[in-house]
Structures are given as C-alpha cells and as structure tokens.
Write a structure and sequence with these properties.
Blueprint lengths: L8 H26 L2 H28 L6 H27 L15 H49 L2 H15 L3 H18 L7 E3 H19 L3 E7 L7 E3 L2 H16 L4 E10 L2 E9 L13 H13 L4 E8 L2 E9 L6
Parallel strand pairs: 2-4
Antiparallel strand pairs: 1-3, 4-5, 5-7, 6-7
Helix pairs in contact: 1-2, 2-3, 3-4, 4-9, 5-6, 5-7, 6-7, 7-8
C-alpha cells in the first residue's frame, strides 16, 4: 500500500471500496435494528464518511512519519486512535439516533452507546491490522525488488569492468616477456589472473571490503604499468581503519581506471594517479586525483557507463547517504566519494 513517495494507487482504490462495502452492510444492519431506513441512512452516511476520512488521514500521517518513530510507538498511537475514534463515533451515533423516531420493527433500544462504540472499535481495529499487514508485506517486497535491481546492476557492471583491449594488451605483453624475462611475465600473468578473478566474481558478492578493493587496484596498476611504462605511476595512502569497511564491488578500480584514462588524455608524461582512503568520523572518504582539467560540470550519469553504473549501485547501497563529485584543484582533477554509515544491504 506504500510507495517511496507515499500511498500507492492500490490503497486509494481499496480504501473507498472497503468503506462502501462496510456502509452497505451497516445500512442493512441498522435498518433491521432500528426499523427506520431514514435513521439507518443518516447514521451510515455520517459515521462511515467520517470513518473513511479518519482512516485516510491516519494512513497519510503514517506515510509521512513512518521513518521517524519506532514500531512500538506507532502501535501505541494506532491503538489510542482506534479507541478515541470509536468513542467519538459512538457519541455521534447516539446523538443522531435521538433525532429520529424508532420504527415499529425496531429491536434496538435508544441510547445504545456501548454497542456503537464496540462496533466501530472492531471496524477500526480490523482496518488498522489489515493496513499494517499489507504495509509490512509491501515493504518486504519493495526491499526484495530493490535488492534484485541492485543485483541486476551488478551484473551489468561486471560486463563493463574488464576492457577487452586491456586483457589483449596484457596477454601480448606476457607473450613477449616469456622468453626474455620469465619471472616478470609470471608476475604479470598472476596480476591479470587475480584481477580478472576479482572483477568477474559471479558469487553474488555485491559488497567487498576496502582491503579487497585496494588489492584489486594494485593488480590493475601493475597491469597498467606494464602497458604504459615509466610514464605512469600510482601512489596509495590508505588508512588502516578503513580496511574492514565495505563498498560496492569494483568501486575503487572503477575510480582508478577513470583517473588513468583522464591522465592519458591530459597528454603529460609522466603522469601520476593518487589514491587516498580515510575515515572522517563515521564517513568513509575516498579521493582519486590525476592530471587534467574538467571540461564542464561533473555528472556521474554522463561520465561514462562505468561511473554511471557505480553511481546507481551506490544509490542502492547508501540511499541519500553518499556523494560522488569531481572538481578541479590546480592542474589536477579530483574525484571524491563519501559514504555515510553502513550499506543498506549486503
């Protein structure tokens, strides 16, 4: 019944239908009980309309404040609202009954406040149970859908991570080094194998530790160094307190690969990429900088498929608790990632 923005259209379809059905049943019961259709119609239209308005308002308030109160507080407020609502509807029903004569076939005496109170207390409690039951079920389904979407983005991300040219160039380099520098060729083959194994992990590990991410970046740097030679270098400054923190898979490699491409385009030789990772209170901070100048305002969705996919996965893991920005500092462009707290799911 809930969506990220509020009550779903399904709720607004079911809510009036439910109260109309209850009104039809209530009108029939009141007609038989009081022997006066006019009285039954007055009670039904007045009390059930107020019931519809009250429960709709309660649902809207619940959506607006759902994340601001504990479940026990919400339950206590719901019980209190049901009792107060039933009490007021019971009083109003008693007052309306005093305005109309009882029919000859009436089986209910005047002044039956307690019966009206019990009737509407039951109606409101059943409505509350049904509403919260459906809401809880929908929240579970929404969370599962969010996880499924994140998994799908992860698969798309894996397909984009390993560039064929990187693999082919590395394989050619290994082939060329085998005869003259076998130890170096063996180390390069190990780095490529480790990097591919990490990048193409199909075990559903959506989140990986900073330590694993740094290890993957070191393998990537080794591969890129072989391809670019002495004109490329990479410096790491990683706070040990961050090593156990978790990030979406291939976050650091994506940032470093982007920095390497930007550094190459800058045309300077040699060029250096710097990677810094540290904690600021409960915020994990990452900076990757490279030579070059920004061509305009940074927008992750337009910075290439890798950063676009990374930005979407960050939004899944850290909804409204992360920032991915890039700015200019002298002759270097700096991409910054900040994530607050723990990821929403593993």
């Amino acid at each position: 019944m809930l969506t990220g923005a509020g009550l779903s259209p399904f709720f607004w379809r079911v809510q009036p239908i439910g109260w109309l059905a209850l009104g039809a049943l209530g009108f029939w019961i009141r007609s038989a009980a009081f022997g006066n259709p006019t009285l039954a119609l007055a009670l039904t239209t007045t009390l059930d309309t107020l019931g519809f308005i009250g429960t709709s308002a309660a649902a809207v308030l619940h959506v607006r404040h759902a994340g601001q109160a504990r479940r026990l507080h919400v339950l206590a407020a719901a019980i209190t609202a049901c009792i107060v609502g039933a009490f007021l509807l019971g009083l109003l029903g008693t007052a309306i009954r005093e305005l109309f004569p009882m029919g000859a076939s009436a089986v209910m005496p005047r002044g039956t406040f307690s019966l009206g109170f019990v009737y509407y207390l039951g109606v409101l409690c059943i409505w509350a149970l049904a509403y919260y039951g459906f809401s809880a079920e929908l929240e579970v389904r929404t969370e599962r859908l969010s996880e499924a979407q994140a998994r799908q983005k992860e698969l798309e991300h894996l397909q984009r991570q390993v560039e064929p040219h990187l693999v082919l160039n590395t394989l050619h380099a290994i082939q060329a080094e085998i005869a003259t520098r076998p130890a170096h060729a063996q180390e390069l083959a190990r780095q490529l194998a480790d990097y591919l194994e990490y990048a193409l992990d199909r075990n559903g590990n959506t989140l990986r530790s900073v330590q694993e991410e740094v290890a993957a970046v070191r393998d990537l740097v080794g591969i890129q160094t072989q391809r670019l030679g002495e004109r490329f270098s990479c410096h790491f400054a990683v706070d040990g307190a961050t090593l156990g923190k978790r990030l979406p898979h291939m976050t650091l490699p994506a940032l470093v690969e982007h920095a390497v491409r930007q550094g190459q385009r800058a045309g300077g030789a040699p060029f250096r990429v710097q990677v810094q990772v540290w904690m600021r209170d409960s915020v994990l901070e990452i900076e990757v900088d490279n030579p070059g100048h920004l061509s305009g305002t940074f927008d992750p969705s337009r910075a290439g498929p890798v950063l676009d996919n990374l930005n979407q996965r960050l939004a899944q893991c850290y909804p409204e608790r992360y920032s991915l920005t890039m700015d200019q500092q002298a002759d270097r462009s700096v991409i910054r990632l900040s994530v607050h707290g723990e990821p929403s799911f593993a």
